[in-house]
Amino acid sequence: MSDYQAMQAKLVAEIDAAADLDAVEALRVAALGKAGSVSALLKTLGGMTPDERQTQGPQIHALREAVTNALAARKAALEGAALEAKLAAERLDMTLPADAAPKGSVHPVSQVMDEIAEIFADMGFAVATGPEIEDDWRNFTALNIPETHPARAMHDTFYFPDKDAEGRAMLLRTHTSPVQVRTMMSKEPPIRIIAPGRVYRSDSDATHTPMFHQVEGLVIDRDIHMGHLKWTLETFLKAFFERDDIVLRLRPSYFPFTEPSAEVDVGYRQEKGRRIVGGHGDDDGHAWMELLGSGMVNRRVLANCGLDPDAWQGFAFGIGIDRLAMLKYGMDDLRAFFDGDLRWLSHYGFGALNVPTLSGGISA
Ligand code: 2NL
């Protein structure tokens, strides 16, 4: 056996016997490190004659290769053994119950929107949606709201600094009416839609938030009248509040986009500091509460939206969703709706799987 072979056998035996990864590393440094024994041998090649190098070079390189392979093999074996030991020690019991995952809940506004959509779907209404960034023609002009109307003032409306491609002022919609305008301009009557969504007004106090939620309804056909309006609202409110004793009072009012216009009150009474909807507002212990605005779509609005006012007519209404949610579920502070406080949500939030249906119960 040559000296090189003897040295290789000794080094490989030491490596194979290394007890742990630290020992393998120490042997690597001792053999292949800067001052290692194998590195020293490689350096002797420089001082050899060509003949010596030709015979000894391959042996030295074979030695280095054998040592390198032995180091890699021992390292892999030790790492494999460590993993096996870890797997054996950390046995998983697949029969244990899983940790509870954090549970989300449906926001009351989303819940009430779903309830409203379900009730109106049963009466043949489709849900229509549109952009929250609108132009002043669709938000105001088409609705017969004059340039000088106070609602248009900077004070109430969030305007964008630039105008759109047609030169119209851009704004955050102040109601969902532009969705109905878009529908009238793009679809042939009969139309039966509700338009729920976020709306924006520059207003902020205990009972007003700059963003809030509204649902508007629109019905257009050949001979729609206010009787249809009252029946539709009564049927909706009975289903929404789940009571048959809902009594409505229509009061003459004014909106630029409806003629005639009516404000709709609902009878209620106070119970343990909470308003409970139901009963005739003039009955003992009862009163009237204004709930929504409505009316027959103004002929000018129909014409602005491309419909012949002598052929088509219809009713429209608008309700605040946040207030409906407060009334139904007994919440007293509007601002808490948009605070993002999860404690409020876990108190008032709704299960994601309790989807409102008429067949299964509309309420959460
Ligand atoms: C209110 C009043 C209302 C409408 C909204 C409407 C929409 C079109 C045409 C005609 Cl496109 N009317 N919407 C009508 C009457 C009242 O809302 O006080 N809401 C809380």
Automatic annotation (TrEMBL):
Mg(2+) binds at residue 259. Its EC number is 6.1.1.20. GO terms for biological process: phenylalanyl-tRNA aminoacylation. It is an enzyme of class 6 (ligase). Its main location: cytoplasm. It comes from the Bacteria. Residues 110-356 form the Aminoacyl-transfer RNA synthetases class-II family profile domain. It is found in: Cytoplasm. Its cofactor is Mg(2+). Binds 2 magnesium ions per tetramer. Tetramer of two alpha and two beta subunits. It catalyses: tRNA(Phe) + L-phenylalanine + ATP = L-phenylalanyl-tRNA(Phe) + AMP + diphosphate + H(+). One of its GO terms (cellular component) is cytoplasm. PANTHER family: PHENYLALANINE--TRNA LIGASE, MITOCHONDRIAL, PHENYLALANYL-TRNA SYNTHETASE. The lineage of its organism: Bacteria, Pseudomonadati, Pseudomonadota, Alphaproteobacteria, Sphingomonadales. This is Phenylalanine--tRNA ligase alpha subunit. Pfam families: Phe_tRNA-synt_N (PF02912), tRNA-synt_2d (PF01409). Keywords: Aminoacyl-tRNA synthetase, ATP-binding, Cytoplasm, Ligase, Magnesium, Metal-binding, Nucleotide-binding, Protein biosynthesis.
